[in-house]
Design goal:
There is one protein chain. It contains 13 helices and 8 strands. The protein is of the alpha/beta class. It has an 8-stranded mixed β-sheet with strand order 3-2-1-4-5-6-7-8, with helices on both faces. Helix 4 packs across helix 12 and helix 6 runs parallel beside helix 7. The longest helix has 22 residues. This is SDR family NAD(P)-dependent oxidoreductase. InterPro entries: KR_dom, NAD(P)-bd_dom_sf, SDR_fam, SDR_member_12. It holds the Pfam family adh_short.
């Protein structure tokens, strides 16, 4: 193992320095210069969900700087247009299009995808960033727990519906914005909708992010005929409006260590833009493949993973 790899591993296992701005500062010094190169996404169309705030906003800005047409997909069009104007002030040449969709609402996802296919014949990268951390258990119109619907079911359905557009791209990418918080949670194979026990929003969030990571290899195999590269990643600890609202105490304690939204967005943008395409079906942090478990207690059997996949596919209206 090289010294660089050893330092990276220590940062990863010790969590606090690795997930903080320190980890980003150390690791970014080892990255290849000009990767991705300027104009890496010229002519490409990149769809970013949750693009009106935090990491999603930073992903949209970075993809636009690399030349992409960015479909800023948001729940509130008015807020999305406001952020678009803000980004255009920083980069007047940016090609930004606001699209409206609530990814937790499967009916809305279907309607949105049908319209989008008529407006955009090709999508080069689909970055599933939209997130929610509910203070209390809530269900969507289809009866699914909100975190599961937002982070898993909606992205599954949206990607499946947009596969024809992704297949038109020379090197299509799908990126799932997960979280390092998933390391603390086992796969909830017996209670995906969080109907049992006392509900905690942070736990629901982490559980749904664990599901994303568990399903990534399955999705990679499922979409291989469309040449889609599938990746899950986590951004580290990032100072975003969502963090301040959902976990104010954590933010106050860790504020000096938190990454900027741009730093948190980096790996997602890199996964969408670097060439050649990175290996598919893996979990990434700071541009490197990471373990999906650090504790034996969080590991799942293949039967448990298959059951979770079957439930999620059927809940999203897909054929497993």
């Amino acid at each position: 193992m090289t010294v660089t790899a050893a330092v990276d591993t220590v940062l990863d296992r010790t969590i606090v320095p690795g997930y903080s701005r320190l980890g980003y500062a150390v690791r970014s010094r080892t990255w290849r210069a000009g990767d991705p190169p300027a104009a890496a996404l010229a002519g490409a169309t990149v769809l970013v969900t949750g693009a009106n705030s935090g990491i999603g906003k930073a992903v949209a800005a970075a993809a636009a700087r690399l030349g992409a047409t960015v479909l800023m997909t948001v729940r509130n069009r008015q807020r999305g247009e406001s952020v678009r104007r803000e980004l255009l002030r920083d980069n007047p040449e940016a090609d930004l299009v606001v699209e409206r969709c609530d990814v937790s609402d499967l009916a809305d996802v279907r309607e949105f995808a049908a319209g989008l296919m008529g407006r955009h014949g090709r999508i080069d990268a689909l970055i599933h960033n939209a997130g929610v951390l509910p203070p209390a258990r809530a269900e969507t119109g289809q009866g699914h727990e909100l975190s599961l619907a937002t982070h898993v079911l909606g992205p599954l359905l949206l990607t499946e519906l947009l596969l024809p557009a992704l297949a038109e791209a020379p090197s299509p990418r799908v990126v799932l914005m997960s979280s390092g918080g998933m390391y603390a949670q086992p796969l909830p194979s017996g209670d995906l909708e969080y109907r049992r026990g006392a509900y905690r929003g942070a736990t629901a969030y982490a559980r749904s992010k664990r599901i994303q990571v568990a399903l990534t290899p399955i999705l990679s195999r499922r979409w291989v005929e469309h040449r889609v590269t599938v990746a899950a990643m986590h951004p580290g600890w990032v100072d975003t409006p969502g963090l301040a609202q959902s976990l104010p105490l954590f933010r106050r304690i860790t504020a000096p260590l938190l990454r900027t939204a741009r730093q948190g967005a980096d790996t997602a943008v890199w996964l969408a833009a670097t060439t050649p395409a990175p290996p598919s079906g893996h979990f990434w942090h700071d541009r490197r493949i990471r373990p999906t478990h650090y504790r034996r207690a969080t590991r799942a059997t293949q039967d448990e993973v298959d059951r979770v996949w079957g439930y999620c596919a059927r809940a999203a209206g897909l054929d497993p």
